[in-house]
Amino acid sequence: MTTQVNKTAHAFDKVRLDALLNRRFFYAPAFEIYGGVAGLYDYGPPGSSLQANIIDQWRKHFIVEEGMLELDTTIMTPAPVFETSGHVARFADWMVKDTKTGDVLRADHLVKNVLEARLAGDLEARGVAAAPQDEKDKKKKKKGAKAAAVVLEDAVVKEYETILAQLDNYSGPQLGELCRTHNIRNPDTDNEVGEPQQFNLMFTSSIGPTGQHPGYLRPETAQGHFLNFSRLLEYNNGRVPFASAQIGRSFRNEISPRAGLLRVREFTMAEIEHYVDPEDKNHEKFKEVRDVEIVLLDRHVQEAGSSATKKMKIGDAVDQGVIANQTLGYFVARIYQFLIKIGINPERLRFRQHMGNEMAHYATDCWDAEIHNSTGWTECVGCADRAAYDLSVHSAKTGHPLIVRQALKEPIVTEKEAVEWNKKVLGKTFKQDAGTIQKTVESMDEAALVKLKGQLAQGSAVITSVDGKEFQLTPDILTIERKVFKQSIREFTPNVIEPSFGLGRILYTLLEHSFWSREQDVERGVLSLPPLVAPTKVLIVPLSARAEFDPLVLEVSTKLRRAGVFSRVDDSNTSIGKRYARNDELGTPYGVTIDFASVQNRTMTLRERDTMDQRIGSVDDVIAAVTELVNGTIDWGEACQRLPAYDGVQAVD
Amino acid sequence: MTTQVNKTAHAFDKVRLDALLNRRFFYAPAFEIYGGVAGLYDYGPPGSSLQANIIDQWRKHFIVEEGMLELDTTIMTPAPVFETSGHVARFADWMVKDTKTGDVLRADHLVKNVLEARLAGDLEARGVAAAPQDEKDKKKKKKGAKAAAVVLEDAVVKEYETILAQLDNYSGPQLGELCRTHNIRNPDTDNEVGEPQQFNLMFTSSIGPTGQHPGYLRPETAQGHFLNFSRLLEYNNGRVPFASAQIGRSFRNEISPRAGLLRVREFTMAEIEHYVDPEDKNHEKFKEVRDVEIVLLDRHVQEAGSSATKKMKIGDAVDQGVIANQTLGYFVARIYQFLIKIGINPERLRFRQHMGNEMAHYATDCWDAEIHNSTGWTECVGCADRAAYDLSVHSAKTGHPLIVRQALKEPIVTEKEAVEWNKKVLGKTFKQDAGTIQKTVESMDEAALVKLKGQLAQGSAVITSVDGKEFQLTPDILTIERKVFKQSIREFTPNVIEPSFGLGRILYTLLEHSFWSREQDVERGVLSLPPLVAPTKVLIVPLSARAEFDPLVLEVSTKLRRAGVFSRVDDSNTSIGKRYARNDELGTPYGVTIDFASVQNRTMTLRERDTMDQRIGSVDDVIAAVTELVNGTIDWGEACQRLPAYDGVQAVD
């Protein structure tokens, strides 16, 4: 029997979590000693490790499991690529300027903040607002929300709620209209704001010493996949479906980055581009995920002004047309499984469908994995059907075919009228009109060609070009014959299903979902990260820095390394309790203590982070148990059956 | 007994290797369908895997083994950081412009190419030049080297050779002088070139919507480490030595990128910053590497115009002062071990010391790991002692102390004269001169203070400021007393030893060192990548696409995955021989064939890439053997003792 732990004794406290993450250097504002730059963060040792472990799991879950083709393409991109893809024209947010100070605000965020503040003020005035938890919290709330506690008319409340539910669906001019209609001003100055203007989110640069080649930093890794499509297809022996995958840095010059990792200017993404036959978007492994249950928020519900979700099996969602096709559904399920595996709380995860105007210009259907955290529901993964958009536009622009050529099992045999020209006579007879004549005849349908053939058989025929000129044709100029055509190759541009992961957002929400404080002491924070992604798996704690412990410390760390378990030694000059408390904050799931008894009897204690239970066993038994715990082949209950409880005094917290 | 393989039957052929790397999509010019951009490359599936495996080994060899603190910092960097670090002023190459066409050339490359061409022309004229291997090669040589076959005077040959040996040591104006003195012109146009000008290699951008915050893309990851030094030190419990490590993308806007991965504009680096006490640069693990033998090319040899290397034990090199200190020597040895481990040929690896002018502005000693390839010796790793430069300048600029505070075991007790001011009287008496007076007194040495004290005891004293003014001081203004000072904390700015790896260069030279062609057929290229870094470890080859093979294929791939061995199935529609030939080009070290016998008897054949030897055994024995082969616990000879030779016919090449 294992100890019961109450993780909800204290309400979630973002201030405490942020302090912990900063103190333990999970991440910190980049260039902090220079005053920092909004939207740029550095990951310290535990943050880097956590990110690397999430990436490692992602690679196994997606790339290895599905045999995807991994890519590593450049960030710096010449301008023509993003001109073709549509990013230069459309990858923009709407910003408004304070009419007096010139401060720049993101239009949709402004509307959201002001309306939410008014609704909060309304609740407060009606006396139904939750009391702020403490002074700090109160101050914080006040800063974001300057609206006075004023009761709103019921119709106004309803209107605001509808606007907020559909906010992502408004165009720039509509956002401007909202500001005017509802008197939405810059809350920091109470000044009016101007008309929304587009601001392109790509960072610009220039390539080479002459400054003549404009470049952009990619805002997503996707184009690097598409441009290499022909090579990837060849690598895959010419067959679809297959997927390419890439993990890498992208950049977006956000207008107003949020504090923290949720909206940053430089971030690590993991993107999959899965290429399918547009006429067959079924997925051969769909049956494996049919019964996965997901919480969905579809577009119709949102367009009706609601946020009501429903729980569905993926199989039903696809069968009922809620999700457009099996491949999209397969990835929605696989995304769900991945997020749960690394420790996201399934109760705080939903899939929201994009509304019509909200969808990227290329997409035909799109579902976001939204994870709930202290700021609300946050898009962490997008899963879009980009159709043939990207491959088509790049192909059209460059003249390089980005298509699949598929041998047909049964050739398609067709019979039709075929025109053959005597070009010499045609040219001699009609000179500069020859081209027009060819075009005119070749654009005729079957019936017209049959008629023309009949007339030519009579000696001559008159045709009329689109601009109304008439020409008389004779059989020495062209012949028309019925011929059999056999098509043995089918050519098509594949469609692309794109799951796209923002790793920083996932990492941050995972930290929120993992954080709690000890029931007996709110100051003692714990990050219950699953062993799979925890930065360090096992902490090795020698009771003191005595040299006689060194050989055993070395032995344990070497044996753990050989077993593939990442451990760290903490031989700092503080009490064991403090060292364990520090590692609870770092999310280290297990600790082993080496003391005098260890040296004499070759025994070690094993401590579990969440319960603080301690067990004891021989050095090798403890290493074997902790290896299995980390690999997930046993749980703590099973470990407790193998190792007796420890009730010594040296290693208590 | 294993088969002997002759890997040098055919001379190395870069054209064949490049064709292979392109055909198998190890890497390819980025944006190729848009015409490409010089210096930007995308890695395809095998290149990405090879790179990921090299990084994985690097992490184990350096970060895990030494307990380094990993970081992940941003690429986008606000301008003030690089102004302080000196990059804005000095991170530049010298370029010259063709005086007529305006074409831009890198000055040192121009001198090198022209002088090397003249020396080659001289050899040709003397009839001692090696004959070009084939027409293609001849053409290529001609393009780079337009110099006529003219005999040079012996003194001129000697002079050119001396210039080339010291080329990295010339300043911009000196390069200009060389062009004039030796009539060095643009070889493409034969026009003169102008005076060398500095071109800064950092890509510029701007951060935020207002365009007011200039930024640079980092040209190295190092500054991200230094700016976080205080946090890292705290994470390490305030102790030095320790190291931070980071793997990430960097950018340099090269003037003239070379074809291929050797000089690119965007690249992945792995950098270590090891922080040491400036008064103790010994390394506690130095004894472990003392006997590692390295080929060295020291600065004195180069400055004397020679390139003669010598082989030394690292221990001797440090003892004799060839390498500045143990920590630098330790990393030189560890770099050597890493490169050998991943497959670099030790015969083509040397460590070259930077000459005085060549060294970066911050460094006090620097050794490059240079790897030999078809273009000559190429810097792939730098190992520099950056001293306290970076931490000092950032600290001075920001006012944020980047120092170590160390408790002294024995406090240092000193006695000295201490000055105490009566500031009120001082100010009243001397007004704006008060500051000058304080400075003058406080800069006095002990003897001067004792003298002044004596004079004050007499009633008054006259002092002279640096600018010659005299002031009369009296005991009501200041008192001087002998006091005891106890210093229990020592503060110092640590020095930084920086091993810095260019992963793309290492990857490319590794490919060159691994490439050869079968003795019997030069068209059949092989990449003998070590299993440790090979993109795929085991190829699973079902004899045909029959459904009856599927369960066994699935079983083998699942078992290999569980054993941690990355495999791929090749069930394409070609012969087994062709599939193996393709995978020889991909560097896959082992292959297993599943045929009818496998299904009936549960046996499989195991093929070794280099020898093409085939052995046979039960499915589980083959899986066990290949797992050990990949993990390096047995070699092919041992595998052959376990598994009998196979002399069947189905799976021959």
From TrEMBL, chains A, B:
Please list the reactions this protein catalyses: 2 ATP + H(+) = P(1),P(4)-bis(5'-adenosyl) tetraphosphate + diphosphate
Q: Which GO terms describe its biological process?
A: mitochondrial glycyl-tRNA aminoacylation
Q: Which GO terms describe its cellular component?
A: mitochondrion
Q: Where is the Aminoacyl-transfer RNA synthetases class-II family profile domain?
A: 176-535
| Keyword Transmembrane helix annotated | no
Family according to the record: Belongs to the class-II aminoacyl-tRNA synthetase family.
Q: This protein is called what?
A: glycine--tRNA ligase
Organism of provenance: Leucocoprinus birnbaumii
